[in-house]
User: Fold this.
Amino acid sequence: MRGRALVGKVAFVAGASRGIGAAVAVGLAGAGAAVAVAARSESRGRLPGTIHGVVERIHAAGGDALAVPCDVTSEESVEAAVAATVAEFGGIDVLVANAGVLWLGPVESTPLARWQRCLDVNLTGVFLVTRAVIPHVRARGGGSLVAVTTTGVGMTDRGANAYWVSKAAVERLYLGLAAELRGANIAVNCLCPNRVVRTEGWVASGGGDLPPEAVEPPETMAAAAVLLAGQDAGGITGTVQRSERLLGLSPSL
Assistant:
C-alpha cells in the first residue's frame, strides 16, 4: 500500500463497517493514517460487520482507529461524528465517502421508498459528510476528498435504476467541488471499481454468483483509495478513477 505514505494524516471513512469501506479503513491505517471508522453498525444486524470489529482489526495490526457511530442521512449524527473525530485526533485530512445502499430494480417497479432511500444515503449522505469535513481539511492546509461511485453510471445501455442515478449525481457533485476547492489545496476525486466487488450488500441484494474474472477484491479499492488519499490539489483532482486502472493493474479496462 505504497509504504507508510499517510503517517500523520487523519482519515474519516463513512460506511466503514463492512465491504469496501472496511477494506479502505484498514488500508488507510496500514499506510499510517489514524482512521475514524464511521457507520451505523455498532452491533451485528442483518449483514455482518460492525465499526468496532473493523477498529479491532486495525488495532491488531498496530494501527490507530476510532469507532464513530454515524448515520449519514442525519445532519446531527454526521456533525457529531466529525466532532468526535476532531476531538480524538486533532483534525481531518482525508475523507472517503463510501456509505451506500443498493437497489438495481427497473424504474417502473421501484417503490418510492427505495428510490428515496438511495438518494438519501448515496447522494445526500455524501453531501452531508463532505460539507461537515471540508472546514477541517481546509484548516490543515489541504487534503483529499474521495467519493466511492460505480462503473454503472456509464452503463446507460443497461437501463436505469436508483443506485446508478444517485451515484451519477455524486460524480457531478464531486467534479464541481474539485473546482471550488482547488484554491484550498484540496483534491476531490471519485473512485469506482473496474469490476464487481462482491460485498455483503451485493450478496444480500441478490447480485448472484459471478465468474472469477468479473470479481475485484475489496483490497484493490483500498490500495487505490490510499493513493488518492495522498493527493492534494497539486496532484490528481477533479477525476473519476477506476481502481485497477489507477493502480496500473488493468490498463485495458
Q: What stands out?
A: Helices lie at 19-30, 51-60, 75-89, 112-139, 162-181, 200-204, 218-229, 243-246. The chain has a mean pLDDT of 92.
